[in-house]
Amino acid sequence: MRPNFGYSRLFKKFALSALVLGLGSALPFAPAQAQLRVEVSGIGSSQIPIAIAGFTDEALTPQQVTAIIRDDLARSGYFRLIDAGAVIGENSAVNFEEWKKRGAEALAVGSVQRLADGRFDVRYKLLDTVRGSTLSGFSVAALPTNTRVTAHKIADDIYEKLTGVRGAFSTRIAYVTKAGSEYRLEVADADGEGIRVALRSNEPIISPAWSQDGSKVAYVSFEEKKPVVWTQNLLTGERRKVANFKGSNSAPAWSPDGSKLAIALSRDGLTQIYTINADGTGLQRLTSSSSIDTEPQFSADGQSVYFLSDRSGGPQIYRMNANGGEAKRVTFNGSYNITPRISPDGRTLAYISRREGKFQLYALDLGSGQELKLSDTSKDESPSFSPNGRYIMYATETGRRATLAVVSVDGKVKQTISVQAGDIREPTWGPYLK
Prior knowledge:
Blueprint: H1 9-16, E1 24-31, E2 36-41, E3 48-52, H2 65-76, E4 79-82, H3 96-101, E5 106-114, E6 120-128, E7 133-142, H4 147-163, E8 172-179, E9 182-189, E10 196-201, E11 205-210, E12 216-221, E13 228-233, E14 239-243, E15 249-254, E16 260-265, E17 272-277, E18 284-285, E19 293-298, E20 304-309, E21 316-321, E22 328-329, E23 337-342, E24 348-355, E25 358-365, E26 371-373, E27 381-385, E28 391-398, E29 401-408, E30 414-419, E31 423-429
Parallel strand pairs: 3-4, 3-5
Antiparallel strand pairs: 1-10, 2-30, 5-6, 6-7, 8-9, 8-31, 9-10, 11-12, 12-13, 13-14, 15-16, 16-17, 17-18, 19-20, 20-21, 21-22, 23-24, 24-25, 25-26, 27-28, 28-29, 29-30
């Protein structure tokens, strides 16, 4: 019998266990009690020295805006924070020479004002201390509950203006936690704060995947005693059963336009790749091989599908036209490469490779063929790119506990994300919100 390598080790464990019917409950962003803990190690190849001054009257807001901005920039690994030790409004006079002497090449200043309708007017300005000029600035009228989002957007702007790459601090992540007998699909800010529970179940939930507009998540639930593909509106909690065919229904991945999903089905025997409309209609088979084909992923332009197959004798990653047809092998280094994920710009492929008994995260430059090992752990799974392509989040184990990790695509900046009680895995990084 051919080994069922197409599922992650977690999936195989679930699939082989005796499944008992459990109740799944969809909750439109119910608050969660557990908080994530983020630890950062490593720095970027070069760091930009920046000072974040205290914003005038920011004590009015529920969370300190500048503290969130500082944490975001520090977590990125690409900034060296200079202690400002001062409160400076966006219209205050600034002695640029003084800040240059203190080593700051950029300075962020701002203010907060409470509006009559209860919102906060948050004003921000980014200054170039070297040239003595203004780089950027804007104001946001934010509800008290959106304080963190406002701060993340300011950090995004700073990141983009100083690095030339769009920031991803205001995006969200989704993942699965297991505590006791309960599985939870949770959504949080990219920094692990603001956790909301989208689904609770007594049975496993795996393979969450974001729609490109950030409004929905697709996932596999075992609540009907078998793997079934669902989609869920994250605002309303409304769920739709998309694939419930005979056998296994697994590995959902959204098309860039959100109109369909690529899925893996065993309805006709060996697991093969299909597409299906987001409403569960229009099933189309893409592969018809005598091998196991699974874990499909659309390319960023929607023209291709990357997938996993053992047609060469061992698990490797292939690419084919989004409508099917000839498949071309993509990975050649190592005899066991699984879980393909393509970067937003289509230039880099991330995957998990087993070498010397270790499951580790690798990245392949599709243009040059250069491969880079990004992790130093041994039980990695489920990679997911940040929407700006600068970072990859993945699941791993630390001290026998399932955790999440984030690494920059050059391998220099690393973070670990853990939850105090229970395990956390199956991460997926959400898109930019319009």
